[in-house]
Design goal:
Rossmann fold; globular; single chain; seven-stranded mixed sheet; alpha/beta; about 210 residues; 5 helices
């Protein structure tokens, strides 16, 4: 993760980047790196988003249609150890298909649960929005922190394979799905780093778009 953070700092030295608007997103194994960034550099990342990803510290066993994942308590312990005294909630947007056979939905549920537990988010704050795209249902669950601020979005689709939902055709791309890029951009726009309230557009987005192999 230090290499990625060093790249971000190199870009900041050559471009005018708002330090309170650094966001990270990724697909599959890139989503795993996104979560690692949010844990290790949480106080520096404004918000993050994963597509078809896994929780912090998971291994290859977390892949597949029926993934074998660690106990949530074990993952949370690893997250808190990595963060130490610098534990900082990074707002997270999770997108996952219930029909993903490369990274099963259980992995996404585990990611959601680890964020809730690690950052003391109350599952009772959940609000649910339902919709349909091309006759396929989706569900968006939003969780808030103790101050009522939106902190975790969990977007679950049905009927889609492993890949990036919406957008142009290409490898690991699912173009007939909801436009998750627009949803993530909107989420980032709503979440500057929490020490500031400046209403600016996202200043820098790192996309760790890497796909896990079958």
């Amino acid at each position: 993760m230090e290499d990625i953070w060093n790249i971000i700092n190199a870009v900041r030295r050559s471009h005018r980047i708002d330090a309170d608007r650094i966001h990270v997103t990724g697909l599959s194994s890139g989503a795993g790196m996104t979560i690692a960034m949010a844990v290790v550099h949480g106080g520096k990342i404004a918000s993050c988003a994963t597509v078809a990803g896994v929780a912090y510290g998971e291994s290859i066993w977390a892949l597949g249609k029926y993934p074998r994942v660690k106990q949530t308590s074990a993952t949370v312990a690893e997250m808190r150890q990595a963060m130490g005294k610098n534990r900082s909630l990074t707002p997270l947007f999770i997108a996952h298909s219930a029909d993903d056979e490369v990274v099963g939905l259980r992995a996404a549920n585990k990611l959601r649960d680890s964020w809730l537990e690690c950052f003391d988010l109350d599952p009772g704050t959940a609000t649910v929005t339902r919709g349909i795209h091309a006759r396929k249902p989706w569900l968006l669950t939003t969780y808030s922190d103790q101050d009522g601020a939106e902190s975790l979005n969990y977007f679950v689709l049905k009927g889609y394979e492993h890949g990036w939902y919406g957008g142009a055709s290409g490898p690991f791309s699912v173009p007939d799905a909801p436009d998750v890029s627009s949803m993530i951009w909107s989420f980032f726009a709503r979440h500057p780093r929490r020490r500031t309230t400046r209403p600016a557009a996202p200043g820098g987005v790192v996309n760790l778009r890497a796909a896990a192999a079958n």
